[in-house]
Write a structure and sequence with these properties.
Layout (H helix, E strand, L loop, with lengths): L4 E3 L2 H8 L7 E4 L5 H13 L3 E5 L1 E6 L2 E6 L9 H10 L6 E7 L7 E6 L14 E4 L2 E4 L2 H12 L14 H4 L2 H8 L7 H7 L3 E2 L2 E2 L1 H7 L3 H4 L6 E5 L17 E3 L3 H16 L3 E4 L2 E4 L4 H13 L9 E5 L3 E7 L20 H7 L13 H11 L6 E4 L3 E7 L6 H9 L7 H8 L4 H13 L3 E3 L10 E3 L17
Parallel strand pairs: 1-6, 2-3, 12-16
Antiparallel strand pairs: 3-7, 4-5, 6-7, 8-9, 10-11, 12-13, 14-15, 16-17, 17-19, 18-19, 20-21
């Protein structure tokens, strides 16, 4: 089998050898049995994709790990690995590979990129693995396999039956109001059964979430939204800086989305932050909040008994949705790929008047475009062990240096704290670096007589900045 060979520099090779094994990458020696390597392949394919580098030796000398490059003598020497890759999921394109070579280093290192698969991929021994940190963990037992299938969206918890009276969805105000708008009209029980959200005289999870007046009574701790307000910009959840007890938003999904977005906007619009003209209102585009909250509620994993959370800080909103990204979706491809973990919920809520998911498949793209339109940074998507968090930061796209100079157009001085507030920079030492860089350019100077925490900066009095001065010294 002939594979692309890419030449890399000795410097890049040295850096590769020192890669930290992590949730997303693994390094192996060429002697690894292909069957054992299949454990890592299964783990990456079942979790969040990853990179395998085969041809890196690791030894422990005097308690310290040392690594070295020792690749395959030729491409054919890796054939057994390619045979395993093909045998695990015949006909499925879930991997790509290349050989790496570097001057003065022996052999070829095989670099395999394993993509996240739609289905569960098992090792050659028939065991499914998942990746947690730098470990490959076997999926043991029926419950664990079912959890993985929920996680990947192979099966959906929305089809599980709920042990609740059938009239909670057949005679609810929600379903009656909904069916009055449908053409042709139908009796609730007949229509719900035809949509497979009522089975064997039991409501399904999808039926409860969409058509019960109070789904939270049927599905406690997994069908509401919790809203927190923290009066700080610091990371983490600190109850000492909570502005009030968490709000609990309840109701059928259609109402839940609107109420959660409205409550979030009300809280956000009460926040003031320092800007170029003093205290300014904090605001985010309605489309951004709406689409991200909609996504978190419609596509969450309802098998996890945890409510969705919206955490509002002084400079950002965090929206946490229980469950990892489903199917083959990853943080890297989430804006291009589509995969509905809860297809019945997604389809049926689209039948409501003015549905929250009107542009199916375009929600997150709409959220990103809305932030760019008002020159705020893109939302950041992070996948955690059992959830997905979207960070919506109130940070401008201008460089920190430009923001500082714009602030000084209307203010005499600026402190490190004010600088961090208006630029979104977290650490005081990073903010100081911005000030020092501007001083080197001759456009900023320290205010005489102010030291320590009282230190401040002002535009230089030695000369006025010229029109050609370069102020975008640091990336935004």
């Amino acid at each position: 089998m002939s594979m692309q060979v890419r030449a890399i520099s000795n410097e890049d090779a040295a850096a590769l050898v020192q890669f930290e094994e992590s949730h997303f990458q693994d390094l192996k020696a060429i002697e690894i049995p292909p069957a054992k390597l299949s454990n890592s392949i299964s783990a990456f394919a079942n979790t969040a994709a990853g990179d395998l580098y085969i041809g890196i030796d690791e030894r422990v000398i005097d308690g310290a790990k040392t690594r070295s490059w020792r690749g395959f003598p030729d491409q054919e020497a890796a054939n057994a690995i390619f045979q395993v890759l093909e045998s695990l999921s015949p006909g499925t394109v879930y991997w790509d590979a290349e050989f790496l070579e570097s001057p003065d280093l022996p052999g070829y290192v095989l670099h395999i990129v394993v993509q996240k698969t739609r289905s569960v991929l098992t090792s050659t021994a028939g065991t499914a693995y998942i990746r947690r940190g730098a470990q490959n963990l076997p999926v043991k037992g029926e419950a664990a396999m079912r959890a993985l299938e929920y996680d990947k969206g192979i099966i959906s918890f929305e089809d599980e039956l709920v042990n609740a009276p059938v009239d909670w969805i057949t005679n609810s105000a929600t379903v009656i109001e909904f069916l009055l708008e449908q053409i042709p009209s139908a009796e609730p029980e007949t229509w719900l059964a035809s949509q497979l959200v009522l089975q064997n005289q039991k409501p399904t999870v999808a039926g409860a979430l969409l058509f019960a007046d109070e789904p939270q009574a049927m599905l406690p701790k997994r069908s509401a939204v919790k809203i927190f307000r923290f009066q700080t910009v610091e990371e983490g959840i600190n109850r000492e800086v909570m502005a009030f007890d968490p709000l609990t938003i309840e109701g059928p999904i259609y109402d839940l989305i609107d109420k959660a977005v409205a409550a979030t906007k009300d809280i956000v619009e009460s926040i003031k932050r320092i800007g170029g003209g003093g205290l300014q209102d904090v605001s985010y585009p309605h489309e951004t909040l709406h689409e991200i909250v909609t996504n978190a509620i419609l596509h969450r994993d309802y098998s996890i008994a945890t409510d969705a959370q919206i955490r509002i800080y002084d400079d950002r909103v965090e929206v946490e949705s229980p469950g990892r990204l489903p199917g083959h979706v990853t943080v890297q491809n989430v804006l291009e790929e589509q995969f509905a973990r809860n297809p019945k919920i997604v389809r049926l809520i689209n039948k409501f008047p003015n549905p929250p998911n009107k542009d199916v498949g375009e929600g997150l793209n709409t959220a990103f475009h809305a932030m760019r339109r008002i020159r705020l940074q893109d939302p950041e998507i992070s996948e955690r062990e059992n959830s997905v968090v979207v960070f919506i930061r109130h940070t401008r796209l201008s460089s920190p240096a430009q923001i500082v100079m714009e602030y000084l157009d209307t203010h005499a001085t600026i402190t490190n704290q004010i600088g961090r507030d208006i630029t979104g920079i977290r650490r005081d030492v990073q903010m100081k670096d911005v000030f020092v860089a501007l001083r080197r350019e001759g456009v900023l100077e320290l205010v005489p007589g102010r030291r320590g925490n009282a230190s401040a900066w002002r535009k230089t009095t030695r000369r006025e900045p010229e029109p050609g001065d370069q102020l975008s010294l640091l990336p935004s």
